[in-house]
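Reminder to self: tokens first, then the designed residues, so the page reads top to bottom the way the pipeline ran.
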């Protein structure tokens, strides 16, 4: 069964994903106990940074869940989970300012973000339909119609991989913006800044792991496709 042997291709990315998950949860936990000296909450800092960038109309809302924080470009809302919104930890401040970093990217038409948002529909279609097309193609023996289905499946999956790769500069840039603002505006000082940096760096690693997984899966699809005659 070649299907099983190609699975080993995914092992490095799987290990990286597990490490990244462990790293973000342990780092986040550690710095959620370190409170910033000035006593700001994540919501305070988000509002301050938004206003100082002229983004008075970008709203901040509370969202349920753990690490569910995000910026929604369609409604121009920064959504922060409870522990980030109300929290005064260095982790809360780091995450809140990272999400505001995305709002600033959006407002300033940061190209990698526009590109990533533009390919969201293709990426969603790709990650859902590509495996079905691929499996159907293999079922038809990989020739004629089957060959076309497999090629279409791989093409769609490439869209999903491009999305994962395009996410990386967007995430790294949002974090570096956030840390620069926190330092320049003296919101966090000294070791607090280091803590926020560690939280954001380990969060970024989960995106690196997701991208590595997507690339590995693409390689696996191509390998299965090439070996279909074995
Ligand atoms: Zn982000």
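Designed residues (230 positions):
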């Amino acid at each position: 069964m070649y299907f099983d042997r190609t699975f080993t291709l995914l092992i490095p990315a799987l290990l990286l994903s597990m490490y990244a998950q462990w790293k973000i949860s342990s780092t986040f936990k550690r710095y959620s106990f370190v409170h910033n000296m000035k006593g700001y909450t994540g919501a305070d800092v988000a509002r301050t940074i938004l206003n100082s960038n002229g983004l008075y109309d970008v709203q901040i809302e509370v969202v349920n869940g753990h690490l569910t924080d995000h910026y929604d470009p369609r409604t121009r809302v920064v959504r922060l989970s409870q522990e980030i919104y109300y929290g005064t930890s260095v982790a809360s401040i780091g995450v809140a300012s990272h999400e505001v970093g995305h709002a600033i990217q959006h407002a300033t038409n940061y190209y990698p973000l526009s590109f990533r948002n533009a390919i969201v529909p293709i990426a969603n279609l790709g990650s859902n339909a590509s495996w079905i097309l691929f499996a159907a193609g293999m079922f038809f023996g990989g020739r004629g119609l089957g060959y076309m289905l497999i090629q279409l499946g791989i093409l769609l999956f490439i869209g999903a991989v491009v999305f994962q790769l395009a996410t990386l500069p967007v995430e790294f840039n949002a974090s570096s913006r956030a840390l620069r603002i926190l330092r320049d505006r003296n919101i966090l000082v000294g070791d607090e800044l280091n803590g926020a940096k560690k939280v954001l760096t380990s969060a970024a690693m989960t995106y690196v792991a997701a991208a590595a997984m997507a690339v590995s899966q693409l390689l696996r699809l191509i390998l299965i496709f090439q070996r279909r005659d074995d």
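The radius of gyration is 21 Å.
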